[in-house]
Amino acid sequence: MAHVGIDSRLTHYRVGGISRYIQEVIAALPAPSHQTTTIFQSRKAEQVFSDRFATAKLWTPPHHPLERIALSAELLPYRLDLYHSPDFIAPIRGAKRHVITVHDLSFVHYPEYLTAASRRYYNGQIEASVRRADHILANSHATKQDFIDVLDVPPEKITVHWLGVDDSFRPLARNSTLSTVNALNLPADYLLFVGTIEPRKNLPGLARAYRDLLLELPDAPKLVIAGRPGWHYRQVMSDIEDVGIQERLIFIDDVIDDQLPALYNHAIALLMPSFYEGFGLPALEAMACGTVPLVSDIPALREITGGVGSLVDPHDTASIADALMKALCDSSWRQAQAEAGIRRAAQFSWRKAAGIVQACYQTLLN
Fold this sequence. Notes:
The chain is of the alpha/beta class. 42% of the residues lie in helices and 18% in strands.
């Protein structure tokens, strides 16, 4: 019987993003009778990650400079046939076969947006990990093309699996969501950004566009920025403060996953003017809730939104401001886009994503 290992160590240290991906894929992953699966957790994790699969704990922390070597030694006794690293970097030799998930190549395109330590970790190991991997999972066709163009990876070595959207993300009655909105001290209506606060998200550019919007619509709804600190957080916040509209901005960094559906449902539009994305999960979740996405005209976000909402030039504040104006002033257009977004989001599911992951395992094991 084949023995598959899946790395879930990151989920102890972070929430959202890649940790959400790990949790959702494992929850939806099939459990074939011919395969034993072990979920590897951080030694610090207190709760068992899954009741469907065996679990084991590892001492090696994620993102450690010696991670690939230390992890290889720790995994040796488990005699794994396949090891899946959902967070980019695979061990040097932790199993007979290795699968990695790479979510984007932002550290290649925008190394200046990373801290020095992060540049050393990713740039020093990603190419070796890509070469070592027997197969690569990418979460969009845009990311796959990035691999082919930037790292010269053969197309047949890469499988695309779109991420999914949980059933909790759907249009909700306002009276069922007001308690959540009130608990977060938010107004009944607002514009919304969801994501990590880091340079590639282009929050200073969004703030400038919103300032321009206020010149035309002084009573425009407030802008809610929901996100945890990321790389160069202090500099991003300083740049936002320089725009001079702090009284119209609301920052919340303690949103839990269960509150997100309500947060999206009360938003007039979801704003994602990023310079670069590998997928764009907030745009997908917003569409599932019937909230219009206003996103950058970049490959991954064009792919995910599929023509729903507005595409903006992230380098042009007037382009972002015009999209905001349309979303606020054209209610017929907004309603049509909301309905189209719900249909678009229905094409994505974690069950489909996990099924592709399992099919990848099976191909390599055979």
